[in-house]
TrEMBL record:
Belongs to the aldo/keto reductase family. The lineage of its organism: Eukaryota, Fungi, Dikarya, Ascomycota, Pezizomycotina. It holds the Pfam family Aldo_ket_red. Signal peptide: none annotated. Pathway: Carbohydrate metabolism; D-xylose degradation. It comes from Stachybotrys elegans. It comes from the Eukaryota. Substrate binds at residue 112. CDD domains: AKR_AKR2D1 (cd19115). This is NADPH-dependent D-xylose reductase.
């Protein structure tokens, strides 16, 4: 089974359904990536912060060596971590990430969060995480998003990234980016599920031709894995009456309904699982349609409930970035 593609403003085609790599354990990661290629995934969504890019690269290298896929058929996404926003740090870390993946360009490279933190030498700690001392101290860098975006554009000019984009930006930051971008962000990757629908941000992206990638399509489920109280307290989306009812009506699983809710509106999705049968099931989320009245029912489930923010992971002082 293959995913349809979406044409980005950069001119490149991006698979609409990809595979998420956050929380994929190091010891099983290479095999998981290999199995995902085998299941038909061509887009892989990684990041420095996931701490598994080397293993992802091993899985990809094996899949290419075994003839399952060619490099040019893959769409590899990675992200710039906050401690590498200083202009002179962007290219060196991108080169290191490419080396970990055993590739020489990213199909898409994203600013992970619009937050610049003080540089942490990768030889001291990698991935660096949010804290300067690895425990609790937050140190901001004075680098602006505009300066970092300029360095991201440099990656395209040097052939290290084909397309560049952003993640976890809200409307104000995006409006600002569009004022100075010589290369416009091709995609915005955001938390998007029925409990966090962000309709105005989606309208802005549509108007500006920015492709949206939805992450954490299953809402709280992905965050229970990181032991988040807020996620444990929320009603699981896959067991929600509306979602379960629609799954029965359309003869699909609740997870397919949640993924189709995004793909039907033209957004990309990047679900993650370690189970091959579920990989295949998740990939199959573009071949049926949900009636408009049912899409409207899902629209009424919005709680503006965001799971992925620093203050949900640790006692964050000075990191109220979605405030
Ligand atoms: P997800 O929404 O994909 O949920 C993952 C959880 O759902 C896992 O526990 C998995 O076992 C379970 N699951 C997957 N498919 C299932 C199915 N069909 N039936 C039942 N359970 C199923 O969660 P996620 O990992 O939070 O997000 C997906 C990807 O998005 C990440 O791996 C990462 O690549 C990306 N992401 C990006 C950011 C960012 O800041 N840019 C943040 C979070 C996630």
């Amino acid at each position: 089974m293959a995913s349809p593609t979406i044409k980005l403003s950069s001119g490149y085609e991006m698979p609409q359904v990809g595979f998420g790599l956050w929380k994929v354990a190091n010891d099983t990661c290479a095999e998981t990536v290999y199995q995902a290629v085998k299941a038909g995934y061509r887009l892989f969504d990684g990041a420095c912060d996931y701490g598994n890019e080397k293993e992802c690269g091993e899985g990809i290298a094996r899949a290419i060596k075994d003839g399952l896929v060619k490099r040019e058929e893959l769409f590899i996404v990675s992200k710039l971590w906050q401690t590498f926003h200083d202009v002179d740090k962007v290219e060196p870390i991108t080169r290191r990430q490419l080396a970990d993946w055993q590739i020489d360009y990213f199909d898409l490279f994203l600013i992970h969060f619009p937050v610049a933190l003080e540089y942490v030498d990768p030889s001291v700690r990698y991935p660096p995480g949010w804290h300067y001392d690895g425990k609790s101290e937050v140190r901001w860098s004075k680098t602006t998003n505009e300066q970092t975006w300029g360095a991201m554009e440099g990656l395209v000019e040097k052939g290290l990234a084909r397309s560049i984009g952003v993640s976890n930006y809200q409307a104000q930051t995006l409006y600002d980016t569009l004022k100075y971008a010589k290369i416009r962000p091709a995609t915005l990757q955001i938390e998007l599920h029925p409990y966090l629908q962000q309709p105005d941000l989606l309208k802005l992206c549509k108007r500006e031709g920015i492709t949206v990638t939805a992450y954490s399509s299953f809402g709280p489920t992905g965050f229970i894995e990181c032991d988040m109280d807020r996620a444990r307290d929320a009603a699981p989306l896959m067991e929600h009456d509306v979602i379960k009812g629609l799954a029965e009506k359309y003869g699909k699983t609740p997870s397919q309904i949640l993924l189709r809710w995004s793909t039907q509106r033209g957004f990309a999705v990047i679900p993650k699982t370690s189970r091959p049968a579920i990989m295949t099931q998740n990939l199959d989320c573009t071949t049926f349609d949900i009636d408009q009245a049912d899409m409207d029912r899902i629209a009424r489930m919005d709680l503006n409930l965001r799971f992925n923010k620093p203050t949900n992971y640790f006692d964050a002082e000075d990191l109220w970035i979605f405030g």
